[in-house]
Design brief:
Elements: H1 2-13, H2 15-37, H3 44-67, H4 72-82, H5 91-118, H6 126-161, H7 168-197, H8 211-232
Length: 248
Amino acid sequence: MEQSVESLVRLLESYRGRDKVIRTVCYGSQLIGGFLSRKAEADVASHRLGKSLLLFSAQLSQCRTVLRLFDDLSMLAYSHGYGLGAGEEDAGVRWISVLTNVADQLYYPCEHIAWAADAELIRVESGKWWLFSTVLWGTSLLLGIFRSLRVLLLLKKKLKRCGGDTVGHSRSWLRRQMQGEVLSIFSSMADLSNAIHWMPPGFLWAGRFPNWLVGLMGTVSSLIGLIQMNACDSDQSDSMYSSPHSEA
């Protein structure tokens, strides 16, 4: 019990960890609130609790939007460090990653302008800027799926070339990498389904998801993100950059 509490404290002390926890609680509240608010009006207590959870989820979403006001420089540093991906072995992975970084970098200012417009800090129409940010987020997610599929293909080829007991550790490492990419695909697909839901009506299933389904997709993606972060924390130091793959 004490170890679990200490792990949670360490998670909340990091920017990246705190954002993932807030995101999980946000979508979890929307999932439960969406279910409860659908109950008949006769069940006043459950309906009221559902509405309260939906309002709580909206506040947490606003909290994350405000915190992302300070992510531009972190994203710029990440993009600058990656550059044109000279360290990548595969050209396909390299250029997909570069395009993803471009979409991610443009996402932040678009969202900032939309937020500032809603807060009446600037006089512009917020709707089109929210649309731009959603399109960029969806583009980033789609590119991320393509990248993971490409990486999976390359890892499978490496795995086939491995053989014998002398490379047992390498085979184990390759399998873990493949599992991570599969989780990334599922996470991005869940988020992409929500991104399409927030597009203008008439585009695929835009606007058709009930609150509980949006919450379910977001919760699945958030839990996968927590699992992946826990798996790689021993190899990576805490980063101040929060990718739009986990936004909205």
